[in-house]
């Protein structure tokens, strides 16, 4: 026997639910299982969030749903554009807090950089997000909602795009919600983003990498390495004290075997810290042993917040050439959106030095 419509609280948010969860949420209104698939396509594939516009539902059913539940991915609160076409969004979340999301376009290739947490608990010393601390995890709908909101704002529905989970937060610290979001993104009846077009970047949570390797649907893996010795990495990234480089690279090798893909080792170049010739030689050796490709990222400076500096351009090029000459594949990610504070390591919802603002 179906329940009365008022059995679903007004606060229930359909956005972020998978098909099974949608069936349960819609059953008090209509027990037909196909309604969940219809709602799923409206929300994720088409980005139509008002149930009254779901035209393959009877009008009375549309009204009942609209009056009983929410379909709320959050809202765009602020846009900051850079000269290179990058746009940083501050998105206020339906259940409190705010995150930053970045739209990047280069030669018609669209990439969305998504956040997985409000703040971050990992505490990497060169990352602005760390200054917030961890406020809370995002739910699957709050992660996927960033795509829905930016896609509508930039009007690129129907165009292919890539997703990188490289924004605020450590994705593997919020494992279940992030993987649920990856499944929603990858569903052909949803957003239709192949998992091969999704990259997850981690600071090196080894148990999460090991678990990710066993998933039937998994994104590509990027690991934020940033040092070639445990002594330096301990200082830059406290996570290394629990999962040092050797153990981390063992997990990367296992992931590469299971997935058949090379892992990306991300390496933020910090002047005088990790950019010596000896670092280049060790990095090439580590990358060859995974196997992995290396993505070099000249540090993106943030005055008054982070004390580090980027090496000169010639030094960055020389570091890449030395790594390449020693048999590893190395490329440079010249950052985009720097003047909008939208580049790697610059995302945070902060008010002023020493005064974090969570957006709640």
First-residue to last-residue Cα separation: 40 Å
Named CATH architecture of the largest domain: Alpha-Beta Barrel
In total, the number of domains comes to 2
Approximately what portion of the residues adopt beta-strand conformation?
15-25%
Shape verdict: elongated
Q: Give me the secondary-structure category.
A: alpha/beta
Rounded mean pLDDT score: 91
Which homologous superfamily in CATH is the superfamily of the largest domain? Aldolase class I
> What is the CATH first-level class name of the largest domain?
Alpha Beta
Main sheet record: 10 strands, mixed
Q: Evaluate the radius of gyration.
A: 22 Å
Description:
By secondary structure, the protein is of the alpha/beta class. The protein folds into two domains: 5-68, DNA polymerase, domain 1, CATH 1.10.150; 75-356, Aldolase class I (TIM Barrel), CATH 3.20.20.70. The chain has helices at residues 19-26, 34-45, 59-68, 140-154, 175-186, 206-212, 230-236, 245-259, 277-288, 313-325; strands spanning 75-81, 87-92, 98-106, 109-113, 117-119, 134-137, 161-165, 198-202, 220-224, 263-269, 292-298, 330-332, 350-352, 355-356. It has ten helices and 14 strands. Helix 4 (140-154) crosses helix 5. 31% of the residues lie in helices and 20% in strands. The two termini are 40 Å apart. A ten-stranded mixed β-sheet has the order 1-2-3-4-7-8-9-10-11-12. 46% of the residues are buried.
């Amino acid at each position: 026997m179906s329940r009365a419509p008022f059995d679903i609280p007004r606060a229930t948010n359909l956005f972020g639910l998978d098909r099974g969860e949608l069936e349960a949420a819609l059953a008090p209104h209509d027990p037909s299982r196909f309604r969940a698939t219809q709602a799923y396509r409206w929300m994720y594939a088409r980005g139509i969030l008002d149930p009254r516009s779901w035209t393959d539902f009877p009008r009375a059913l549309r009204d009942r749903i609209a009056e009983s539940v929410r379909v709320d991915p959050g809202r765009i609160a602020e846009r900051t554009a850079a000269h290179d076409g990058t746009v940083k969004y501050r998105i206020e979340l339906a259940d409190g807090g705010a995150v930053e999301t970045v739209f990047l376009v280069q030669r018609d290739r669209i990439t969305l950089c998504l956040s997985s947490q409000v703040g971050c608990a990992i505490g990497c010393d060169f990352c602005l997000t760390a200054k917030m601390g961890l406020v809370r995890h995002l739910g699957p709908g709050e992660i996927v909602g960033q795509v829905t909101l930016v896609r509508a704002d930039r009007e690129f529905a129907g165009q292919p795009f890539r997703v990188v989970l490289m924004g605020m937060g450590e994705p593997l610290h919020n494992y279940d919600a992030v993987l649920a979001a990856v499944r929603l993104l990858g569903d052909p009846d949803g957003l239709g983003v192949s998992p091969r077009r999704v990259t997850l970047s981690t600071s090196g949570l080894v148990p999460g990498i090991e678990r990710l390797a066993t998933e039937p649907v998994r994104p590509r893996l990027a690991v934020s390495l940033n040092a070639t010795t445990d002594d330096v990495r301990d200082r830059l990234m406290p996570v290394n004290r629990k999962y040092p480089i050797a153990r981390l690279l063992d997990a990367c090798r296992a992931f590469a075997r299971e997935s058949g893909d090379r892992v990306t080792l991300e390496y933020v170049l910090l002047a005088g810290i990790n950019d010596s010739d000896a670092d280049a030689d060790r990095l090439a050796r580590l990358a060859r042993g995974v196997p992995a490709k290396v993505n070099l990222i000249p540090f993106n400076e943030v005055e008054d917040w982070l004390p580090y500096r980027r090496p000169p351009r010639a030094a960055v090029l020389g570091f890449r050439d030395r790594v390449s000459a020693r048999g590893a594949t190395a490329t440079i990610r010249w950052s985009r959106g720097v003047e909008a504070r939208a580049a790697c390591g610059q995302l945070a919802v902060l008010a002023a030095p020493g005064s974090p603002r969570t957006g709640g």
